[in-house]
Amino acid sequence: MDIVTQTWPWYVSGFLIGIVMLLLNYFGKVFGMSSNLRTLCTIAGADKFADFFKFDWKAQRWNLAVLAGAMLGGFVAVHYMNNPSNVDINPKTIEQLAALGIDAPNGKLAPQALFGNQIFESPKMILILLIGGILIGFGSRYAGGCTSGHAISGLSNLQIPSLKAVIGFFVGGLIMAHFLLPLIF
Amino acid sequence: MMNYIKYLLVGFLFGIVLTKSEAVSWYRIYEMFQFQSFHMYGIISVAIATGLIGLQIIKRNNIKDIDGQSIVIADKEKGSFRYWVGGLIFGLGWALVGACPGPIFILIGAGFWSVILILIGAMIGTFIYGLLKDKLPN
């Protein structure tokens, strides 16, 4: 069953992501994953510290259901639909990563060097993942959305603010990938 | 409860697609930012094109949602600074840990426990935004 285990081509994947967004629109909702972070903060008690978290989070339960489904989908795809040929990235990319001391994919979604359980013993790696998360959480709220809310929902609805945010995403990403990552690793 | 099952199913599809397309992979994000593959650009472009065509069909035919209401997608607030700067900050994090908010949850569901650190960071980042919101330039 090749189609189940192989990497799905970009045109199939992109189409299905568009369908996910349209289905949520059909259900009267707007596709956006980072809003869930605000909801989770409120559930954790952040509303006692800032008014931003005083909102009717229960109206956002549908999005938590999307999130739970996505986690389940990730579990099924990784455990029952994988293949050693997966994550067949450019050999040049693999060479560059080797120079930084980062292991090749060999079918894995994430490098051991950054995501293996041994990183829990490395204060540097713990800090890198925490800081990466802080930048994502802060940036997506300041920009009012992330890849799903701005790049997919916003751009397909021809929103100029989303275009600005998406250009920002790429400028930030290029600065990190080309100038900062080589300094960090 | 039944009401939530359709959201769970859409989320399930999303989780499968993002994993099978490898958009959740740190490697794919790195490769994208090195311009060494078309894969991620293709995914994002086709997703936008599909959404764009779908929304145009919805708008032109005044298609109603599941409850019979008009489908209205609110415009994003006008502005510039927050989109450029917020976007840039987000991009730095995206390329560092190779995951945006959707994939963070998908990877945790798939059993990548170290990604819980990214989630904790993302909640701290969201919390910091909530504290500073009124002091930040818009």
TrEMBL record, chain A:
Q: Give the membrane topology.
A: Multi-pass membrane protein
Q: Which UniProt keywords apply?
A: Cell inner membrane, Cell membrane, Membrane, Transmembrane, Transmembrane helix, Transport
- Tell me a GO cellular component: plasma membrane
A UniProt-annotated Pfam family: Sulf_transp
Report the subcellular localization.
Cell inner membrane
- Specify the domain of life of the species encoding this protein: Bacteria
Residues forming coiled coils? none
This protein's record includes keyword Transmembrane: yes
InterPro entries (UniProt xref): Sulf_transp_TsuA/YedE
Where, by residue number, does the polypeptide cross the bilayer? 6-28, 62-81, 125-144, 165-184
The record's annotation in PANTHER family points to: INNER MEMBRANE PROTEIN YEDE, SULPHUR TRANSPORT DOMAIN-CONTAINING PROTEIN
- Hey, which family's this protein in? Belongs to the TsuA/YedE (TC 9.B.102) family.
Record's protein name: Uncharacterized protein
What taxonomic ancestry is recorded? Bacteria, Pseudomonadati, Bacteroidota, Flavobacteriia, Flavobacteriales
Automatic annotation (TrEMBL), chain B:
Say yes or no: keyword Membrane present: yes
InterPro entries with a match to the protein in the record: Sulf_transp_TsuA/YedE
Q: What keyword terms does UniProt attach to this protein?
A: Membrane, Transmembrane, Transmembrane helix
Transmembrane domains' residue ranges? 39-58, 79-97, 103-132
One Pfam entry for this protein is: Sulf_transp
Q: What is this protein called?
A: Uncharacterized protein
Source organism of this protein record: Flavobacterium noncentrifugens
Per the UniProt record, the lineage of the source organism begins with: Bacteria, Pseudomonadati, Bacteroidota, Flavobacteriia, Flavobacteriales
